[in-house]
Design brief:
The protein is of the alpha/beta class. The protein folds into two domains: 7-121 and 270-281, Aldehyde Oxidoreductase, domain 3; 124-268, TIM Barrel. The chain is 42% helix and 20% strand. It contains eleven helices and twelve strands. It has helices spanning 7-22, 27-32, 54-64, 93-123, 142-151, 169-175, 178-188, 204-210, 223-233, 250-254, 265-268; strands at 38-45, 49-50, 69-72, 79-80, 85-92, 130-132, 165-167, 195-199, 215-219, 238-242, 260-262, 275-281. Strand 10, helix 10 and strand 11 form a beta-alpha-beta unit. The protein starts with 6 loop residues before the first helix and ends with a strand.
């Protein structure tokens, strides 16, 4: 799929996670499993969903057993049913058991995000609205969380504070008003940077557009107010709806004619997809 995770991000994430879990050693596996024992194992889907994070799982086991064979039975972005084999492994038993939880943690979290995203994308199908993520990601795992959103068919909002201007309510308070905040941002940003401003009421819309905002984020507005905002804006800038969006409310917002709907729940509240690793032979 488009936009793979950079190799250095995978390596750093796996290294940190294994160090956190193993510490001075896997005392259970070291006591029970012979060093040269080998086995075959499978990662199995216990729930229906969309897979993401296979590169992290592969890298986890490779870090513990460079000779381990890791065969992907599906690809990131694929939808799986209960009982689907996601990946097959063959290598040292100790490495498979030691890496099991770390690999599954990556896979389950990322697949949960991809699955949640796919549900939102499906909910707005047939409209022009694009489902986007936010910066409400797990600290240190943003690249992984945002990749998982892409695997689920969504689009990434800005990656961090450095790659896009989004004027929030506290920026507006600090500047003394939305127009002044937009003007200051426009003076500071180069001409290729889009200026997006958050508005919490219909009254702020003319002020923000008049000051030069190129996109507006309609924050925590009802579908009725979003529809009125779309009429007021009349194509003069791009429109994003955000704030408290749920699967139950997202369709109504999309049908108002907004361009984007950003959903924090994709990353901050996604339920991990149920996957397990099972030894299937020697």
């Amino acid at each position: 799929m488009r936009g793979q995770i950079p190799a250095w991000v995978v390596e750093q994430a796996v290294t940190r996670a294994l160090r956190e879990d193993i510490g001075a050693g896997d005392i259970t596996t070291d006591a029970i499993v012979e060093a040269e024992a080998r086995c075959r194992a499978e990662i199995i889907a216990k729930a229906e969903g969309v897979i993401a994070g296979l590169a992290l799982a592969r890298a986890t086991f490779a870090a513990l057993d460079p000779g381990l064979a890791f065969e992907c039975a599906v690809s990131d972005g694929d939808r799986v049913k209960v009982g689907t084999a996601v990946a097959r492994l063959a290598g040292r038993t100790a490495a498979i058991l030691t890496g099991e939880r770390t690999a599954l943690n990556f896979l389950q979290r990322m697949s949960g995000i991809a699955t949640a995203t796919a549900r939102y994308v499906e909910a707005v199908k047939g409209t022009n609205a694009v489902i986007c993520d936010t910066r409400k990601t797990a600290p240190g795992l943003r690249e992984l969380d945002k990749y998982a959103v892409r695997a689920g068919g969504g689009r990434n909002h800005r990656v961090g504070l450095y790659d896009g201007v989004l004027i929030k309510d506290n920026h507006i308070r600090a500047a003394g008003g939305v127009a002044e905040a937009v003007k200051r941002a426009r003076r500071a940003a180069h001409h290729l940077v889009r200026i997006e401003a958050e508005v919490q009421s219909l009254d702020q819309i003319p002020e923000a557009i008049g000051a030069g905002a190129e996109a507006l984020l309609l924050d925590n507005m009802s579908a009725a107010d979003v529809a009125r905002a779309v009429e007021m804006i009349a194509g003069r800038c791009q429109i994003e709806a955000s704030g408290g969006v749920t699967l139950e409310s997202v369709r109504a917002l999309a049908e108002c004619g907004v361009d984007y709907i950003s959903v924090g729940a994709l990353t901050h509240s996604a339920v991990a997809l149920d996957l397990s690793l099972e030894i299937v032979g020697s």
